[in-house]
């Protein structure tokens, strides 16, 4: 049993930490968020130049086949900086789907760009009615000629507004909630019939809904076997969940540090408010929520790239359930312990709170993962 | 024990309902029900209608334009008005400074200020909190020095709700530094247009501008604007706070918000079925509805005690804590109900004038922002921790 990072892993994390500290002050983050892109083009480039967007990929793509722990190291630091770049969407989820489901040609076509950061991928798996069930796919892909015609709508595609490639799920057969019959397609956002309704997100990033109206794609847009994408989606969103958990840990660490610092500084009734036992105990609870969450994020990271199994499914569901609850707890209690200042735009705490609560709306909320876990409970 | 309204009270409720049906503007009701943005003009329009009906200042003495509703009547009004989508009254003038002026002000002050509150000429804001004086309000530092017939005020107030719309501010200021903190505070009425006053916005986490910082630099305030006696302001301030607290439980608003939540949950789907039929989500809603049921009876018990001649005491602190927790729980569920659509921040859909397609549900857009914004409920009006301190001291004797 060893919970320490290897020397290489530690170096990786330090590299990202240094970069974030240098480039991503809270004030700059607000500016990045206000731009049309919604993040820093320059910072994204640097992630590419330093080989960070290549971390999960093989050597020939400039990476070193980094697994869950390496991804965790990167995502935790991006979380600390509240970084807005589409690292999780493009590198982990998009890159992961392409690596797992793409054939040689597709990988050759897309992965070098993903690994260098030059090609930004967004992934549209949800639909307006699907809530968090990714097997609920109404979008249709019908065979037409050599290729397919896509019709439907994908909901809340984070990073979709600026993506060079959007991977969407669509149904090639089966009923609306069948796992069987779901396929994945690589769609060029500028193709005819693709429309995007772009919006800012409440946590400072940007996303869009993607409308597919008779979008014609070639046969080679199909990623993986027709109708068999559910497994790929489940596996790769599992990796993305582990990444979100790591990001949340970075946010929670920073949030707790801010709160603790404030309890020591802020004086009322002639003493630092940290002298009030009710705030002390709450801070202790926030810390132990973070530690519970950290344990689960570590566990999730260790399963992220493991072979699929019920144990992996359970672990990732459990991790996301714990992270969602801890994130909300730390956000709400942290604001409360700050008093009015915790509610203001110009102070960073609220932005951590918003990101943490929104993480709970990505890839399944607390109840979704509790139900998923319950459905996978071991008999004894 | 009789938990039913009397025949007169029922008749009053019918009258209230008929009035709301006839007079409440549909656009304002739609805004309130959908948690859409309310403008100053909306508030003023509704105020005018209420004043005409004689119900705006219902708790004032009749000679100044009140109707002296009983606490039960007031309660009926709050519940019905919220249910119909009547916007919450901006309390600073009619419900806060007015009771203080009525109880402690001079006859001239009553004659001057009260009509202007009714006719909307004065829009008030509350200048209590300061950067260094939040929970510990008595440590406030804004200084007022008397010079013959006026005070010179210097200092800063903060968190001033809707101060950007206000032309009057009631302030707690320090007039004596030689005595115990609570004994050197005075209650001043200040015209916001006086030279030396600067208002700066504070933007909240949801991007809204509802609070402000107010700076005072050598602001000249006539001595006639002092309420009651110099250095006795703390007593008046506390009188006002008990008034503020009773309303803060927001039972009527919670009922309206719960019904809004159920609407949302009956339209949003999970696995093809309305969330309202989903076992775990419906239980979450049921739980908060049960808690609200209990709180609403607690509220009635306090009202009945007041009707019997009591004063709302520390019990209203308990109710403030419960009431705000319940409202926050409802907001939490509304955010959850819209699932992934909590993430988009679609500001244009928060306005009633929006005529485009809604991204998801027509009521979805304000939900996440509302959840974040209402973290304030457990902070302002005396934080929930402070309320619990009051209960443990005043009721439990700890
Ligand atoms: C089943 C059982 C087995 C035990 N076995 C052993 C044993 O083997 N050996 C042994 O030596 N002792 C043993 N104990 C005693 C145990 O350690 C004490 O009960 C414990 O230390 C609490 O002391 P107390 O019961 O006097 O409660 P008190 O100390 O009087 O506390 C009463 C309450 O006040 C709270 N409180 C006290 N001080 C503070 C503070 N500063 N801030 C906030 N809250 C405070 C406590 O948390 C508690 O809720 C045992 C007790 C039990 C119930
Ligand atoms: C949206 C909003 C609108 C507002 N509108 C107005 C307005 O119009 N006019 C106005 O005057 N003020 C207004 N306020 C200010 C509000 O009354 C204060 O925010 C509140 O009194 C808390 O003060 P603070 O923010 O300085 O927090 P602090 O007093 O610094 O409190 C920080 C934390 O410490 C806790 N704490 C402090 N003392 C104790 C204690 N003794 N025991 C245990 N815990 C303690 C608090 O509960 C809180 O959790 C508003 C605030 C907000 C957020």
Automatic annotation (TrEMBL), chain A:
Q: Which residues form the Acyl-CoA oxidase/dehydrogenase middle domain?
A: 123-215
Its required cofactor(s), as named, are:
FAD
What GO MF annotations does this protein's record show? acyl-CoA dehydrogenase activity; flavin adenine dinucleotide binding
CDD domains xref list:
ACAD
Q: Where in this chain does the entry annotate a coiled-coil region? A: none
**What's this protein's family per the entry?**
Belongs to the acyl-CoA dehydrogenase family.
The UniProt keyword set, sorted, is: FAD, Flavoprotein, Oxidoreductase
Listed name of the protein: Acyl-CoA dehydrogenase
Domain called Acyl-CoA dehydrogenase/oxidase N-terminal: residue spans: 6-118
Highest rank taxon of the organism: Bacteria
Domain (Acyl-CoA dehydrogenase/oxidase C-terminal) ranges: 242-368
Automatic annotation (TrEMBL), chain B:
Which cofactors are named for this entry? Answer: FAD
Q: Which InterPro entries match?
A: Acyl-CoA_Oxase/DH_mid-dom, Acyl-CoA_Oxase/DH_mid-dom_sf, AcylCo_DH-like_C, AcylCo_DH/oxidase_C, AcylCoA_DH/ox_N, AcylCoA_DH/ox_N_sf, AcylCoA_DH/oxidase_NM_dom_sf, Mycobact_Acyl-CoA_DH
Please give one Gene Ontology molecular function term for this protein.
oxidoreductase activity, acting on the CH-CH group of donors
Entry keyword Transcription: no
Q: Which UniProt keywords apply?
A: FAD, Flavoprotein, Oxidoreductase
Give me the Gene Ontology terms describing cellular component: plasma membrane
Q: Which domain of life is it from?
A: Bacteria
Q: Which Pfam families match?
A: Acyl-CoA_dh_1, Acyl-CoA_dh_M, Acyl-CoA_dh_N
Indicate yes or no for the key word Endoplasmic reticulum.
no
Residues in domain Acyl-CoA dehydrogenase/oxidase C-terminal?
231-395
Q: Where is the Acyl-CoA dehydrogenase/oxidase N-terminal domain?
A: 6-121
Q: Which residues form the Acyl-CoA oxidase/dehydrogenase middle domain?
A: 125-219
Family (UniProt): Belongs to the acyl-CoA dehydrogenase family.
Protein name as annotated: Acyl-CoA dehydrogenase
Taxonomic lineage of this organism? Bacteria, Pseudomonadati, Pseudomonadota, Gammaproteobacteria, Pseudomonadales
């Amino acid at each position: 049993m060893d919970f320490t990072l290897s020397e290489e892993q530690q170096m990786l994390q330090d590299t990202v930490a240094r970069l974030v500290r240098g480039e991503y002050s809270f004030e700059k983050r607000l500016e990045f968020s206000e731009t049309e892109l919604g993040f820093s083009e320059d910072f994204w480039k640097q992630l590419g130049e330093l080989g960070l967007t290549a971390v999960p990929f093989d050597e020939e793509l400039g990476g070193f086949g980094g697994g869950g722990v390496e991804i965790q190291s990167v995502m935790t630091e991006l979380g600390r900086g509240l970084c807005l770049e589409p690292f999780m969407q493009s590198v982990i989820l998009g890159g992961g789907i392409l690596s797992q489901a793409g054939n040689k040609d597709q990988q050759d076509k897309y992965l070098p760009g993903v690994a260098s950061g030059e090609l930004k991928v967004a992934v549209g798996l949800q639909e307006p009615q699907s809530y968090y069930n990714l097997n609920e796919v109404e979008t249709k892909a019908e065979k037409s000629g050599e290729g397919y015609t896509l019709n439907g709508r994908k909901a809340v595609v984070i990073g979709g507004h600026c993506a060079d490639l959007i991977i969407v799920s669509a149904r090639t057969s089966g009923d609306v909630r069948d796992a069987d019959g779901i396929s994945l397609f690589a769609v060029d956002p500028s193709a005819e019939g693709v429309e995007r309704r772009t919006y800012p997100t409440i946590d400072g990033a940007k996303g869009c809904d993607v409308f597919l109206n008779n979008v014609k794609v070639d046969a080679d847009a199909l990623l993986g076997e027709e109708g068999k994408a559910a497994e790929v989606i489940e596996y790769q969103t599992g990796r993305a969940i582990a990444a979100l958990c790591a990001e949340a840990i970075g946010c929670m660490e920073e949030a707790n540090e801010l709160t603790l610092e404030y309890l020591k500084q802020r004086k009322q009734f002639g003493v630092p408010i940290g002298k009030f036992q009710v705030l002390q105990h709450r801070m202790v609870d926030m810390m132990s929520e973070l530690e519970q969450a950290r344990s689960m994020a570590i566990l999730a990271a260790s399963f992220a790239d493991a072979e699929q199994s019920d144990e992996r499914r359970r672990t990732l569901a459990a991790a996301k359930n714990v992270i969602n609850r801890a994130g909300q707890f730390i956000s709400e209690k942290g604001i409360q312990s700050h008093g009015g200042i915790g509610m203001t735009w110009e102070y960073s705490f609220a932005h951590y709170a918003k990101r943490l609560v929104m993480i709970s709306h990505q890839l399944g909320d607390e109840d979704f993962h509790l139900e998923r876990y319950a459905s996978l409970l071991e008999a004894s | 024990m009789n938990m039913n309204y009397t025949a007169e009270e029922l008749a009053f409720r019918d009258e209230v309902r008929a009035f709301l049906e006839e007079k409440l503007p549909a656009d304002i009701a739609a805004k309130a029900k959908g948690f859409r943005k309310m403008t100053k003009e909306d508030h003023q329009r509704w105020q005018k209608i209420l004043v005409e009906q004689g119900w705006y200042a219902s708790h004032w003495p009749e000679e100044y334009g009140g109707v002296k509703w009983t606490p039960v009547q007031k309660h009926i009004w709050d519940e019905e008005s919220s249910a119909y989508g009547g916007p919450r009254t901006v309390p600073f003038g009619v419900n806060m400074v007015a009771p203080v002026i009525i109880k402690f002000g001079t006859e001239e002050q009553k004659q001057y200020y009260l009509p202007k509150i009714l006719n909307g000429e004065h829009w008030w804001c509350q200048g209590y909190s300061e950067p260094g004086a939040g929970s510990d309000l008595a440590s406030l530092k804004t200084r007022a020095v008397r010079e013959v017939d006026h005070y010179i005020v210097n200092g800063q107030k903060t968190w001033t709700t809707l101060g950007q719309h206000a032309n009057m501010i009631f302030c707690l200021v320090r007039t004596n530094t030689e005595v115990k903190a609570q004994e050197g505070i005075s209650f001043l009425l200040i015209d916001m247009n006086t030279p030396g006053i600067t208002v700066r916005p504070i933007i909240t986490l949801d991007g809204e501008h509802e609070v402000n910082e107010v700076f005072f630099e050598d602001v000249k305030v006539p001595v006639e604007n002092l309420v009651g006696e110099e250095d006795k302001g703390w007593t008046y301030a506390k009188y006002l706070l008990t008034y503020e607290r009773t309303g803060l439980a927001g039972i009527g608003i919670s009922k309206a918000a719960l019904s809004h939540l159920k609407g949302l949950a009956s339209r949003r789907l999970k696995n093809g079925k309305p969330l309202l039929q989903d076992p775990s989500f419906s239980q979450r809603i049921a739980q908060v509805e049960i808690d609200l049921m209990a709180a609403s009876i607690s509220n009635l018990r306090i009202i009945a005690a007041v009707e019997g001649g009591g004063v709302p005491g520390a019990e209203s602190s308990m109710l403030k804590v419960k009431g705000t927790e319940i409202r926050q729980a409802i907001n939490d569920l509304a955010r959850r109900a819209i699932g992934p659509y909590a993430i988009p921040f679609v500001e244009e859909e928060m306005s009633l004038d929006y005529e485009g397609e809604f991204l998801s549900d027509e009521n979805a857009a304000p939900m996440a922002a509302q959840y974040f914004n209402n973290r304030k409920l457990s902070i302002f009006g005396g934080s929930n921790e402070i309320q619990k301190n009051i209960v443990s001291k005043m009721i439990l004797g700890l």
